[in-house]
Amino acid sequence: MNLTFPTYPECADCNLHTNAKNRGVPTRPLQVTGKDTALVFVGESLGYNENLAGKSWVGYAGQLLEKLIAASKLGDLCDIYLSNACRCYRPQSISMTQGYTNKCRPYLQKDIEILQRQYKNVVLFACGGPATYSISKIKTLALAFRNQGIDSKLFGDEGIPCFFTNHPAILHPSRKPALIGAIEAHFNLVRRYLTGDIVPQKVKVEPLSPMYPPLELPDRISLDIETYGILKGVEQTVFNPVKSKYIDGIEFGKQIETVSIGLWDGDGSLITYLFQFGRRDHRAKLVAWLERVSQQGKTIVGQNIKFDVLYLIHNCPLCAYWLAPNRMKLDDTLLLGFLLYDQSPEKGLKEIAVLRGYGGYEDCAITAKHGTASGPTDPDLHYYNCLDAGMTLLLDRDCREDIGHKYGKNTPKLNAECAALRNAIIWDTVELEKNGCCLDTAKLSKLKDDSQTVCDLLQKELKKSGVIVAGEGSEKSLREFVWKAADECGLLGDKRLGYTKSDKKICIDKGNIALLQQYLIEGALAATLKNITKFKATRDIISRYAKPLQTKPRKGIVMSPCRGRGIVYPSWYPIPSYHSRGGSQEDKGGGTVQGRFSAQKPSVPTFPPLVKECMACRKHGYKLIVWDLSQIELRMAALLSGDPFMMDDYMNGRDRHAATAKDILYPGSSEEDEDWNDKRQLAKKENFLVLYRGGWRRLQEVAREEMGLSLPDEYCKEAVRAFYRKHSVFYQWQESEIEKAARKGYTELPTGWSRSWGLGKQGVSAYINEICNFPIQTLSAQLMQSAQFAFLQRLYEGYMLTKIVSYAYDALYLEVAIEEEEWVDRELNYVLTRPPILPTIEKAVGRSVPIEYSKEVLCDAT
């Protein structure tokens, strides 16, 4: 078969043609042997090599694509064609826009129509975000991954099946080669589709009527709930039960429609039970299940189990009794999936089911995306709820098996310590979301008003300098100032100076501002730059914090327990995941791969100091107190590396920052020096930046941006060299971590957490900073998380009034009842100095380091 696709050498539909040596480059065949199906790979646009050759996919990315096609043996199943969303050369300086893809889509359609006339089936496989939009109008890859196999109607009413993956160029050693696993999974999905085996494991469930639990339970059972948003005509806009009450108007006790429980029976069959939550007899049986699970020390597993537990706690007091951190063990397939492959873009149960070939959802009349249940008695709802429980149980089993195959049966991911840590992490985030965090509304209002006054004064001052920073004409005025300042500093033409990709205008972003700050030390321009920076920071306080916290309950204050107080209920994330279960497909994800918890709506851990000062207690007779682990990441660096100087400082209680100042940055200096605080502060900056292999330029930038110091290049270079001369053991530890990462393609910690990289020296070259930082940052965060859980259990065991209300990677914020403060001090002293996970780390490295902490009262009892 020899198809000819039309070229469009005269095309001038968009401005890309002005850079093109070959315009309108058509689709081309790659492997054609007369199969019934044509698979069309759609890329973004022509690169430099393609522009010269007048042929698509002939550069680096094209070579990678051909290797992926060969490895997946797609050519055995179909004829393969290569195309692009945009058919002209796009220089790297020009951003790919939807406008370009819209202009070019008709030409892609004509090529597809030619294929449709010759082939029984045509399948599209988009590589990258622009290609995804071109064939489906889905705006992001993250959203596309939730819609694999969707029929696109853009090229005809019958629809064409579409699949999506990252552009192969992202696997370049300088970018993200760790994504190879995700791309391979997408290729395997397409292969299964082409073989007609896209769902090799069909999952069917039978929703059984609820019964009391058997005398002996299996080790793990699954649990899944369906809330009011599953009902026809009812929209669930928030996914915290307190927000459901105060924003969606659904009272406690009425927020859950059904609950399902899944378990494996003795012969390996899947059993599911369905409980109608509104029925008292069904709730009684559900509580009996929870009681039996707790008493036998079994584990409840869910997909984002935090969601299920939070709603059960708020909607049933008896469920809340058993669903407590001192009574119930939890696990989550989100965490297990992350341990299996931390770079997987698929997070939701439905898209994971598609990727793994678990069939079943395609037969459901009801889905969480389209709530169409008539009520809690709807049999379609029962089936869907039980299918979720069954899928969760299947995923739980397969994830643990796959972890063993990938990392070995002796991996710490499968041991009791890792399971205990996962349980701790789930309960930590449940408690943080349950309690929320209290703010003083009067202080917030004053902060907003004071900030506005500062902005107004700065705006007037800057106008005198000829700079408009807000309103009409501000963008042009700021660009002119940045250009003038860059010219004054001799930076025009400097590669570090940023320009917009589309029209090459000078950027007015933080990068350029920070660069100018390194050169503008004094004078009128320096003063103006300082005022611009202060104006932007102050305006951010208003627009990002003070105003939305008081006016937008979804992102700010939800309810007020008393006059002058308001409580925010952030969503907390232990790992990268979607914003909220059941949320919009447009929701952005939260969480980090570095082990730290993060929060959204609002992001309490990243509150600026002025906003943190508005934190308060919700009742009289309480104190808001923060306990902060002292230099925990530096201590972890000493513990992991065994560097003798670092270890000696901590074993003997010496100030590490002072040691760096005296021995490295300012030899001969002492605490008596007039500028000692500045010297110690710079030493602190260096101590932390070397943890992630930060170089001399970063030291120079930090000194200028955060301390206002202008340090010579050679001074900064010698400072870093001198640090590694003294701490050569620490340097060798970093080198060994890099070598292991290059050899294995991943780094695995004693707690089971891991990060994926590329293979070989080239494969890790883009990740050096992360490889060095990951063990230190993650294990430090996990020390606090395990300590937090140990203290949380003590709170529940003692029926205490004190609440954990916020978290930072090295700090806990508590509302402490004044009569309990002595008890809290004693218990926290125990868990903070000996976090439960610490012996696991000490055993792995064969040494120990003392842990210290500080305590600060932020808001006294009133």
UniProtKB/TrEMBL annotation:
GO BP terms in the entry: DNA-templated DNA replication; double-strand break repair
Domain named DNA-directed DNA polymerase family A palm: residues: 615-820
Pfam families referenced in this protein's UniProt entry, alphabetically: DNA_pol_A (PF00476), UDG (PF03167)
Region (Disordered): 580-600
Alphabetical list of SMART domains matching this protein: POLAc, UDG, UreE_C
Any GO MF annotation of the entry: DNA-directed DNA polymerase activity
Keyword field contains Membrane: no
Uracil-DNA glycosylase-like domain segment(s): 31-194
Swiss-Prot/TrEMBL keywords: DNA replication
PANTHER family named among the record's database cross-references: DNA POLYMERASE I, DNA POLYMERASE NU
The protein's name: DNA-directed DNA polymerase family A palm domain-containing protein
Origin species: marine sediment metagenome
Upper taxonomic lineage: unclassified sequences, metagenomes, ecological metagenomes
